[in-house]
Amino acid sequence: MTARGWSLTVPIVTVLFVAAPFVVPSWILFILHLALAKFLVVLAVALFLRGGLVSFGHALFYAVGAYTAGFAAKWFGVREALLLVPLAGLFGAAVAAVIGLFMARYRGVFFAMLNLAVSMILYAILLKFYWLTGGTDGLRVQTPTLLGFVPPRDLIRLTSYYVALVVAGIMTYVVYRFLASPLGYYLKALADNEIRIEYSGESVQRVIYATYVLSGALGGLGGVLAAFTVGHIVPEYAFWIQSGEFVFVALLGGYGSVPGPLIGAIAFEFIRTYANKYAPYAWQMTLGIIMLLIILLQPGGLWAMYESMVARFSRRAEGVERA
Amino acid sequence: MALLTIVLLDGFVFAAVLFLLSVGLTLVFGVLRILNISHGGLYALGAYLGTYLALKILDIGLSPYLTYLMLLAGALIVGVITGPLIERLFLRRVYGQAEAIQLLLTFSILLILDDLIKLIWGTAPLMVSTPSTLLGHVSLAGIPYTWYHFLLIGVSIVFGGALVWLVRGTRFGKIVVSVINDREISLAVGINVNRIYTLAFTLGALCAALGGAAVAPTIAVAPGFAVEVGVQSFAVIAIGGMGSLEGAALGALLVGLVRTLAIHTFPELELVVIYVLMLVVLMVKPEGLFGEVELRRI
Q1: Does B234 contact A at CB distance below 8 Å?
Q2: Measured between beta carbons, which residues in chain B are less than 8 angstroms from residue A49?
Q3: Predicted-complex ipTM score
Q4: Which of A55, A197, B63, B191 is the most buried (most CB within 10 A)?
Q5: For the segment A288-308, what is each residue's pLDDT rounded down to a tens digit?
Q6: pTM (whole model) above 0.80
């Protein structure tokens, strides 16, 4: 999309999101809220997909973020959103900085499955060390305070929605800048040919490592926001199905761009709501079939579908002008 | 001493099942260069169909010895039907595409298989213990072991031997090796590469289903048990070296013994040790114990 297109789209989308609480019913607001949280993790997964890498383990960072909020409340009685949100992002990034040292050495199948393995380790720990983590019962996350104030009852949802919106907005900008930086371009080149990256003087491991740390921060932030929304966290936050969901959403929205994951995340929450209603026992199958169809028919996802539609319309419009 | 006996025996039994599963995974990866994430789903399907058929036989009141045949039949049906189906319909469309796409494709097949099982057999666990108890048991270190456990180990060794013979000692094996080494030259000398792909994938699916059917009488088959084992079998072939038959055997043994040791000494770490083992091996020898170093493309 051109720079002019962006300067128009961004304000419109922002206004839509800011106005949403006053327009849509509360169940849709909840969906949007959760979608914003998951969007951040999907963005992380989409970054790697751009570089030709799949991670089946980003639920790891999602869980790290969520349990940051859970433990802070349980052990220290901290529930300040402005403290917990950056903390979760930092923890996510820190965990990624450690695992990334190892992960940056692998590509392809190994990268995918090692991520899965590490996230399953965390899942097992969360599940088995129940005296610390609450096991399958999980932990309760209290309503966060904002600057020490407890929001009034009827404004709790609204405040935490706007917190999510601001965080998502900031991180979208960060990722956008990252993709526009040399590192971002090298990441894209990684999918094509990694040896040429090294010929041009950049270290492939450094590119993957930087992306990994950023993706960890995104995952942690997504996790803490989701924990605030749902109010309860369980080990399933780190489970492989959750990781698979993130990959699915990235594919659904299209990972070639920043808006793709956002559209994907929102579409996904709606699909889930309706699938729960009409096909409650075939949820994974629904996911699988949609995913197959996208891979075989529309590899660019929803965003590519939209872009090709726009292109067709503008071509038609030009045709009309010329005639 | 008693602990050592138990760990060794339990470890060998678990390793036998893991080997059946992993050898199929490594075979498919070796020939198709695709890591089949849905492998665990095929394993579960084999376990379910085998158990279901065996239960039916008992219901009708036929000889309980027929249950062994039914387990085998369940595995064969799953392998022969789903194998060609998945390869022809789906995998064939993504050969040569980005690795990410191939992984996602098999991942979505896993999601579908997992739910398909729940839709057909429900979410309640399925259990047929007759094949396991029928053979009687033997006491070792004060713990009763059914002979079926030893049968499992035997089946696994025989099957592994047969596979090695198939790949190293037959014309089919030579053709497979030539397809692995150079697809285009194989085409040029008149090998039907597509057929080899289908056969190799079917054989892999059969291994998975057989592993599932073999283990079914010793456990209760419940939804979701496939994925854990699926990931473990990846750990096995990553440790042994992707595409290597000996690697799958050694990897299965290592994983089997280490996990059993953890279960008997520090059960909280049961799952963690497998992945830690894999991480350590990959750090020291990234291509796996029996793997070949792959050259990077330019």
Answers
A1: yes
A2: 100
A3: 0.82
A4: A55
A5: 898 888 888 877 777 777 777
A6: yes
